[in-house]
Write a structure and sequence with these properties.
about 290 residues, four-stranded antiparallel sheet, 2 helices, about 5% helix
Amino acid sequence: DYLCLGWNKDGTEAWRYKVNLSPHNLQGPGIPLPVTAVDGYVPVSRNFNYEDNQVGAFLHLADGVLVERPTYDAKTLRPVADGWVLEGTMTDNPKQSALVTLAPDGTEVSRTRLADPFIRLTDLNHVKCWDEDGRVARPTSEQMASTLATGEVPWAHLCTRREDTTVFGGVSMMNGRRLNATKADGGSQYGSFPDTMIPATDGSLMLSQPPEDEDSTDRNPPTNLYAAPSGIQLASLEDVGLRDAVPFYDDLLIASPARPDSRIARLRSYLGAYPHPDTVLMGITPK
């Protein structure tokens, strides 16, 4: 038996319920899925098997209230600004594809016909978008329906897309442009950068470890600054005695110095748990 617990901001317990994780007899309300909440709600799966998540309820994180709903396939469930969307069919024609729109608590709002969608909703699992201020952008259900029909993303300032051949594929496109990698001989070819790549908010630069190379033996290569989409290397953090960086705000980064101690220690230094005089703020925008 396991407990699902909710906590108030002051550290006091807000709610709890028990779940039995027997693969043959899942008891209790189910397991909250690790997704971004919408107005405080997250979907709850009746099946703890990750490959077969079926959502049958929505949990309000503030008070632990569970709202029972019809069963939906969690694989295509995606948060949007005003609720959730998923792939389904029209009620009057099970063969007609539709975009099903749900309110934050799982109440069905509408079904929009997708006669010949340009892209599928599951394809957007490989896309990450930001607004002009560098915040992760989330469309409304109406904007999502338009994107599926046209392939265009007018509701976001910057989007990157991972290779969709594997779940862990690298980033291969930025704002619809195929990223390139510069070869040792100076030539250029299509490239795929690690998923940890940090783009500048104007889409002209990216801070990343080198493009993915199956023949590389360097398990922790340096982080470099590349032009986008050409993939031409402009500089390296090693040039200024730094090794890693993480996004902080807008085009600002927290960069950690190259030191011989452990990776865990360097990670801790980002947020000040491991103070070091050479930890710095830096920017990656041409401005």
